[in-house]
């Protein structure tokens, strides 16, 4: 559905779509502080945006969800059918905002940022850096039409080829990961080994994300709680803004939730989870690192592979952004590099006894 494409050597042209003139002005100023970005226009609603897209041919759209005349999600779905292009959603940090943003990611948006007014814990400088980073990453993505049928996921291997008891499957992802994880889990059987998941996501979004996965998967999926015992047929999503680590407790594996400092700028951090598994459960873990910006998880995957874990990185062609899996490949942490549609079956098969 998406693949990385090289951008011509010129400034990234951005159209800002938001009904708030104040937010349009603020987002414009933050983006244009970077010399590689040019805001070519703003639009107060989707109808104006439609005309300006034709006139200005932007490379990237920033898009508000709540707007007059037509909501951003409806506009996004129309856009992805008629003129697919990279879109970064600007979202409110509320439960309703989380649901709408996850719908937008499913509809083809590349990524999202919180509204500046909903991000008081960080200064505008940090917010601006995050916004610029996400717009630059989005500009590298070639978005296919929404009508393109996604490649079917490979079926899970037969029951004789995987073990449920005594194994752990670990998954890490960032940009593009919400849909990649959903696609992967959709192929898992109801008696799959316990699955632990770190997706870079805000605190208010992780509950909605887990609920969405639970509705679409045969597994029982929920947001991890401190002390949860890993069980067959269950998946545990790291709470947004908190680390998820796995520790041994007698005969059980348990979730440990931490509010300690970010690890390599992230909380939750894939590296934090992978490192804990490498220390306590490396010989019974199978791990996958999926699409995402940056390099979180790459070093932890190296530690897991060194500890004897089968490790898999999503390939570049099927990744929205080949940052995290690409870094794992570069560091030698990936035992295999596979398209997304083959990773689920490979994870399950790797749990089988030799």
From TrEMBL:
GO molecular function, one term: protein-glutamate methylesterase activity
Keyword Phosphoprotein among record annotations: yes
Recorded catalytic activity of this chain's protein: L-glutaminyl-[protein] + H2O = L-glutamyl-[protein] + NH4(+); [protein]-L-glutamate 5-O-methyl ester + H2O = L-glutamyl-[protein] + methanol + H(+)
Subcellular location(s) per record: Cytoplasm
Active-site residues, as the UniProt record annotates them: 174, 200, 296
Source domain of life: Bacteria
CheB-type methylesterase domain mapped to chain residues: 162-354
Annotated ranges, domain Response regulatory: 13-130
UniProt keyword annotations, A-Z: Chemotaxis, Cytoplasm, Hydrolase, Phosphoprotein
PANTHER family: PROTEIN-GLUTAMATE METHYLESTERASE/PROTEIN-GLUTAMINE GLUTAMINASE (PTHR42872), PROTEIN-GLUTAMATE METHYLESTERASE_PROTEIN-GLUTAMINE GLUTAMINASE (PTHR42872:SF6)
Free-text domain note: Contains a C-terminal catalytic domain, and an N-terminal region which modulates catalytic activity.
Physiological role: Involved in chemotaxis. Part of a chemotaxis signal transduction system that modulates chemotaxis in response to various stimuli. Catalyzes the demethylation of specific methylglutamate residues introduced into the chemoreceptors (methyl-accepting chemotaxis proteins or MCP) by CheR. Also mediates the irreversible deamidation of specific glutamine residues to glutamic acid.
Name of the protein in its database record: Protein-glutamate methylesterase/protein-glutamine glutaminase
Organism: Lysobacter korlensis
Taxonomic lineage of the native organism: Bacteria, Pseudomonadati, Pseudomonadota, Gammaproteobacteria, Lysobacterales
